[in-house]
Amino acid sequence: MVPDTFLKARLQALHAAQNPDGGWGYFPGKESWLEPTTYAALALHGDPASDRAWKLILGWQLPDGSWRPSAAVNQPSWATSLCVQIAAARGEFGEPFQKGVNWLLNTSGVDQDLWSRFLVAFGFAKAEGSASGKGWSWKLNNSSWVEPTTHALTALRKAAPKVSSTESQKILRERIRTGEQQLMEVRSHDGGWNYGSPGVLGLDLPSYPETTALALVGLQNTKGLENAFTLASTMMQSTPSPLGRAWLTIAMRLHGMTMGEQAGNPSRDLMITSVEALSAADGNWKLMQAGGAA
Question: Average pLDDT, stretch 114-118?
């Protein structure tokens, strides 16, 4: 497949896989879930297919402002951050957006759960990174992780210009600051990022392409990341993961780097297809750009 068909092929695959309810499953023909639906909606932003997805997403918002992960699961999802980003991209800053932002401002990962404290107390894990940073978790009352923290930071930066009260602005700036600090505190010793903690059971954990890229997305406009980009460039050449390459491409584009186009046929995994579409030179990767200054 020549490079100029890379984006077109992925958008066509997403069109073909959209469910009658307007959402997407993780694979074609499967039940709609929030995560693949939000990524596909971002990839197709500006297309009527994305409008249909947004109608479904709006119906999944819970009274507390969070979004449920599917029609059948009545609990908050970390992907609320992605819903807030879609609302911002659409210029819809009404009640659903404001309630989603408030939910993000009032949730955070638990610094250390009981098991983590046990591991630290007996020398099986390092206590680094738990004192001052405060990120976001996959599920409520769980530890912070790189990916949900990245997306929450992106959403809150986009919300910053639309938060009117002085008190809310103060809270938002502090949450962005502590979220960024959390990402820096859990940085692995090789300069990149693992999924969460940089060490466990007394061992330093290596970085991974996808999570290194996601952390760099979350740390836009942050200084002192030169060695992380050196590592990311090496990862780009060596990783067999299409999702890792797609996120690395997005991260590097967001930091002003020129990236060559990728090639290959779309995956049946619709998450990969959506993120690859976002990463394309003419894709919607700019929707991940940091919003107004917090």
Answer: 47
